[in-house]
Amino acid sequence: MARTSTASLREKKLQQQKITMLTSYDYFTAAMVDQAGIDMILVGDSLGMVVLGYDNTLSVTMDDMLHHTRAVSRATRNSMVVGDMPFLSYHISTQEAVRNAGRFIQEAGAQAVKLEGGVERVDTVKAILDAQIPVVGHIGLTPQSINQFGGFKVQGKDLDTAAKLIEDARAMDKAGVFALVLECVPTELAKRVSEEVSCITIGIGAGPYCDGQVLVINDILGMFTGHIPKFVKRYANLQPLIIEALNNYKQEVESGAFPASEHGFTINEEVLERLYGG
Ligand code: KIV
User: Fold this and answer.
1) What is the CATH number assigned to the segment(s) 6-236?
2) Which of 28, 65, 138, 191 has CA atoms 20 to 30 A from the CA of 108?
3) pLDDT digits (tens, 9 = 90+) for 127-165
4) Has 183 been annotated as catalytic?
5) 136 lines ligand 1 (CB under 6 A)
6) Measured distance CA(19)–CA(238) in Å, rounded
7) Would you list the domain boundaries of the chain?
8) Residue 200, SS3?
């Protein structure tokens, strides 16, 4: 099976086949996501919240992102790996944005990068595309703008924010992104945008009419203790299973039930004899 490419994703959109995307941050999880046939793996800056224990994504650095993207890339054969550009890695200058986007490809093995923003990021997107790096846009609720939004809120419910969302979608599509994440956007608005733009739309809290869907893997597997947004569907609840396993381990070590003889290694009696005498 060939790795997912921008061309194969475009073909899926044309054929009206839904596109799947999940986040991953480590080798083991990414290998499972890859095996499950998920089209795209996003090494999201949600890393900051679900793996590194920050309150939001703003503290995540390029070094953090490259470290985790490398691990994910080593595990994948089929899924396209998208590196999420962290806060301040593409805001200072287009030159710095291109350099940082290039590091995801050259040093971390990603096939594309994602960045947040609309109209104000057009030049940045164009510069990165000019370096032959495919770009995924991200509009609607963009977590790196949390201080500007004043919290994690649905975007595009009123006239002004809906008009801004449409303007951002058009600008990103025209700039040349091959995919556009729509986060926390009313279903009907996401439908209209998906019908209009030529790039792939990938929804998260944006209803069923986008070309694809993305979710944070820790949320769908029940491996996160923070706030779980309304749009998440939990497909497994691993946290209680893991805690039960850990409790059993503790109890068995303390009681002496673990390790049993089958978990140990034998030594020839004669060797022992020679070491300690008879
Ligand atoms: O960082 C992330 O995981 C994301 C997705 C939620 C789209 O940006």
Assistant:
1) 3.20.20.60
2) 138
3) 999 999 999 999 999 999 988 888 778 889 999 999 999
4) yes
5) no
6) 25
7) 6-236, 241-275
8) strand
